[in-house]
Amino acid sequence: MAAKGSLKLKGKGKGSKGSSSSSSSKFKVFKDWTNWSLQKAKVATHYGFIPLIIIIGMNSDPKPDLFQLLTPV
User: Fold this and answer.
1) CA-CA-CA-CA dihedral for 46, 48, 51, 53, to nearest 10
2) Once rounded to an integer, what is the mean pLDDT over residues 8-15?
3) Angle CA(36)–CA(51)–CA(73) in degrees, nearest 5?
4) Contact criterion met (CB below 8 Å) for 69 and 58
5) Most buried of 5, 17, 37, 64 (most Cβ within 10 A)?
6) Measured distance CA(15)–CA(5) in Å, rounded
7) 37 or 16, greater pLDDT
8) 57 exposed, middle or buried (CB, 10 Å; 0-12, 13-18, 19+)?
């Protein structure tokens, strides 16, 4: 009875060992891709936020001048 249990454990160990290395590499690729895309999104947001606000302000109903949009009054 103990021999059957040890055979099952060996089989499970082999299957999980191979799948864990492939899943860890998939996780690493996913993590690297996520970090890369979030860094690009951060840069795009950093440089695009103020121009977006100016464009939205220029397309508003009273049609202010650019100087009126940039002054803090």
Assistant:
1) -80
2) 49
3) 135
4) yes
5) 64
6) 16
7) 37
8) middle
Q: Can you read off the two tokens belonging to residue 51?
A: 């121009």
pLDDT over threshold 70, residue 30: yes
CA of 50: how far to CAs of 29, 41, 65, 69, in Å? 33, 15, 16, 11
The structure tokens listed for 37 are 């895309």
Place of tokens 């996780």: 27
